Amino acid sequence: MTDRMPAGFSRDQEGRLLIAGRTAEAWAAQAGDTPVFVYDRALLAARVAALRAAMPAGLQLHYAVKANPMPALVAHMAGLVDGLDVASAGELELALNAGMAAGAISFAGPGKRDRELEAAILAGATINIESAGELHRAGVIAGRAGRQARVALRINPPFALKGSGMRMGGAASPFGVDAAQAPEVLRAMAGRWFDFRGLHIFAGSQNLSETALLEAQRETVALVAELARHAPAPPPLVNLGGGFGVPYFPGDKALDLAMLGKGLADILDARPASLQASRFALELGRWLVAEAGVYLCRIIDRKTSGGESFLITDGGLHHQLAATGNFGTVIRRNYPLVNASRNGAEWEILSVVGCLCTPLDRLGDKIELAQSGVGDLIAIFMAGAYGRTASPQAFLGHPAPRELLV
Length: 406
Ligand SMILES: Cc1ncc(COP(=O)(O)O)c(C=O)c1O
Hints:
- By secondary structure, the chain is an alpha/beta fold.
- It has two domains: 10-39 and 291-405, Lyase, Ornithine Decarboxylase, Chain A, domain 1, CATH 2.40.37; 101-284, Alpha-Beta Barrel (TIM Barrel).
- It is 26% helix and 26% strand.
- The chain is built from ten helices and 22 strands.
- It has helices spanning 24-31, 41-54, 71-78, 89-97, 114-123, 132-145, 182-188, 210-227, 257-269, 286-289; strands spanning 10-11, 17-19, 22-23, 36-39, 60-64, 83-86, 105-107, 126-129, 149-156, 166-167, 177-178, 194-201, 204-205, 237-239, 279-284, 293-305, 308-313, 337-339, 347-353, 362-370, 377-380, 402-405.
- Strands 4, 16, 17, 18, 19, 20, 21 and 22 form an eight-stranded mixed β-sheet that branches. An eight-stranded parallel beta barrel has the order 5-6-7-8-9-12-14-15, surrounded by five helices.
- Strand 5 (60-64), helix 3 (71-78) and strand 6 (83-86) form a beta-alpha-beta unit.
- Helix 5 (114-123) packs across helix 6 and helix 8 (210-227) runs parallel beside helix 9.
- The chain is elongated.
- The site of pyridoxal-5'-phosphate has 15 residues, from strand 15 and helix 10.
């Protein structure tokens, strides 16, 4: 029996899990308590480097802050990528505090309030406009402030990113402007209070098919080329979205970066004349950060019921909702999970649960683990994206998890 864990993690001679060269127990001690999320900065940098090496030269890389907004991690990422994508005025402030130039920040989201539009305009960030009404409001606010609003159009494409964990295209949607309505909104961007920055399409998330991703990119470039005819200027930047997935479950295969890079280079090389002067960007969250994070929690009880053995931990869905299968998945499957304190010769089938009194709080269902007891640390991998801030922390009043960037 071998552990199922992502590349970059190993065990020492005593069988203890090593994260960034130190034991999980050492990181828990440094954090002062469990549960704790540990993010490995070297793994984050390696991820960005691998992507850049495979992608066409000149393709920009943007980090979607929503995947993991820990301030230290965002500051680390800001030094590695070309832009940050934010989804609220709060994330905008975070991105600015991380040292990212305002001109390299874009703000998407279907419900931006006036004060959020104003904050983006005053900072000089690009607003990904999601409706004709939003463009109108941005124009009024810009006029009042005497400052042009930097605007890009987010398009709801008529195609979907096939096989995505989350589809955001090919149907009625609150996100972006339907392609059929886009010409009119683009023409309005010629107004005096707008500085047209380009186009944005985000068609889906958590996709593990290179073919589907490339097909969506091909359709995106064709659609953008067609719509660009209605824009006030050639689009300075085309944000292609992303949707690159990561292998959470047994049988999932990591994306082939070389294949994606080659395919994208072919698409961009063949782009129409109307996009010759445009720059292109990928906008990725999960793919950049998920595998660099581990969630550590401690076993506080062990018991049997109905012939099943349970390890009860101080962690749970209030910190790591996704690992319990309650964040956007239809069928619950186990995230990679190991005993971080030992790698015994004896293995058993155990269920690992959190400390919340709801049957939803199941971190590992009948999983093969080294013999485990009270006091051992459990490590759940793939915890770098949509963990702490995508979980209902206030539910049942347990303490917040700690976070370390190491
Ligand atoms: C507009 C936009 N950009 C980026 C992302 C990040 O997606 P992912 O973390 O799957 O890369 C999302 C996810 O919902 C999104 O809606």
